[in-house]
Structure formats: C-alpha cells, structure tokens
Amino acid sequence: MRIAIDAMGGDHAPAAQVEAVLSSAAEWPDTEFILVGRAEAIEPLLAGKRHPNVAIEDAKEIIEADDEPVRAVRRKADSSMVVAGRMVKEGRADAMISAGNTGALMAVGLLVVGRLKGIERPGLTSMLPTLDDVGVLVLDLGANMDAKPEQLLQYATMGSIYREKVNGLKKPRVGLLNVGTEAAKGNELTKAAFELLEKAPIHFVGNVEARDVLEGVCDVLVCDGFSGNILLKAMEGTASATFKILREELTSSWKNKLAAAVLKPSFRKVRTKMDYNEYNGAPLLGVNGLVIKGHGSSNARAMKTAIRQARAAIQGGVIAALEGEIRGE
C-alpha cells in the first residue's frame, strides 16, 4: 500500500511528518510512504535515516492556514496538499494525510479527489475517547454546516461501515446527537433524521445527549457540521481547562505537591486517555478515496496515529465497501 503525507501542512511541519514516517517505515515495511512537499526542506531531515520504503514527491507551493480554501486549491496546483490529493485521484497513492488547512483539505477532497457517486455532501469525522476505551466516531464535524436529513442518513451509513471495516465492530451502535433522548425532541432536522434512521438498515439506538457521548452509549454519533464542531471544541476546551485547574491546584502547596507526586502515574494515564494525539486522523467520508485530516498541532506521535488509521482503512477496504453500500450491492 502507498500513503501520501502532506509534509508541509500543520504547526510542526515538516519535522513531525518526517519523524512519523521514519518510525512508521520501520514498523510497517509493507507500506510505501511518500512525503509530499519541498524537497529542500524534507531531505535534510532524512539525512542518514532514509528507508527504502520512503520517497519524496517534490511540491513547491504551500497552502497556508489563513488561505481561502477553494481559491488556494485552484491557484496552488503545485502545493503539497493538492499534489497529494492528485496522487490519490490518479491511483498513485491509496490514501493521503494532511494536518494543514481544514477547509482547503475538504476542497481537495471535493475538487481534486471527487465525491463518491450517490453522496450529496462528504462528512468530516473524528474518534473521541469514551470511558470504555472503545471510542465514538463522530460525523460531521464541520464539512457541512447546513445538513439535510438525507445527508445525516448517509453519515450514519458511512460511519457504521467505517467502524466495522476499520475497528472491527459488528453492528456498530448509531446515535443521533440531540437535546434529549425522546424521539420527539429536537429541531426539524433531527426529527426528520430520526425517522429516516429508524427505518435504515443500521443499528440505530436513538437520540444521544452531549453529556452522555463519553459514556460510550454509541459507536457512531451523527450530527450536522455546525453542532458537531461545537461539540468537539467544547470537549477539547473542557479537557484543557480541567487539566489546567488540576495543575494549578496540585502545585498550590507542598502537601498538594506531595499528593501529586504519589498520584502522578494515575494522572498520566488519564491524560493519555483524553489526549487527542491518541485519536488523531479524521477521514473525510464520502469522497472517492481516503483523505485523512490530522489535527493542526499534530506532533510526530499524532501523525503516526493518523498513519495507523490510514493503514487500517486501506486494509479494511473502506472505499469499496462504501461504494457497494451506496449502489445497494
């Protein structure tokens, strides 16, 4: 299998991408890794460490974080992100990963890779940690702010297939993000979507409130991009604030510092459980190829997690399974 990595996207590019690829190449010799970006910036980081299954695809332009997405994709044809997307489109790579501009990556998915036939709007997904360590796949997280009920049904189907093929879950439980668990709760979108999901050939478990998401009540959580993005940012902010409060409190006195020293291994486990680096790699489901978004601040460990997700998706035949489901095969 071949995976193209946008080496120039993200806060720690290209060092994080190169480190992740070198580690991945050593662990998975059956995979070819293609670092896409400015060769003059990548080659010095590979000096003396080159693996036979690591290659460079030179791309001179970079899509910056503040670039207007569609304009950047159209004008910067030689950017690392666009070139990686073109490699997927042309079959020269089985997947692409980028930690760059989210809007631009969605534009690459739509304009360069192209949509799967039958999918109205692709959905951006992410795996959130749950107390039972199984995790929950949430979509959409911002690709489609104004969704229709039929699009939420497609998200449910794609999310269910993804969890089955990538995570090995049989009959993944699908929930609908809502303000209450009762079927009659919500706005017009969620009410209409509820009716469609009830009739769909998926394991639909009903409405799910935001406070219950981390309890592991479902394996796939469906929502529109506006609500999903708010949910994700709220959880990230809450986790960050909680750890900040704990840090301040546990260093406020010598007694607290002593207690913190004793509990340090436990706190480290909690941080690892809630660390986004352990869940990095959000596939853009609904495009005709594997396009995976890494967090903008991804370090090497986070990028390797995204690579692991890409490998699992390729091995699970996610795109073929989605095509078959859409065609009714």
Automatic annotation (TrEMBL):
Keyword entries, A-Z: Acyltransferase, Cytoplasm, Lipid biosynthesis, Lipid metabolism, Phospholipid biosynthesis, Phospholipid metabolism, Transferase
InterPro entries per record: FA_synthesis (IPR003664), Phospholipid_synth_PlsX-like (IPR012281)
Domain of life: Bacteria
Pfam family, one: FA_synthesis
Pathway(s) it belongs to: Lipid metabolism; phospholipid metabolism
Main location class: cytoplasm
Example GO BP: phospholipid biosynthetic process
Subcellular location: Cytoplasm
GO cellular component: a single term: cytoplasm
GO molecular function, a single term: phosphate:acyl-[acyl carrier protein] acyltransferase activity
PANTHER family on file: FATTY ACID/PHOSPHOLIPID SYNTHESIS PROTEIN PLSX, PHOSPHATE ACYLTRANSFERASE
Chain's role: Catalyzes the reversible formation of acyl-phosphate (acyl-PO(4)) from acyl-[acyl-carrier-protein] (acyl-ACP). This enzyme utilizes acyl-ACP as fatty acyl donor, but not acyl-CoA.
NCBIfam families named among the record's database cross-references: plsX
Similarity comment: Belongs to the PlsX family.
Protein name: Phosphate acyltransferase
Organism: Cohnella faecalis
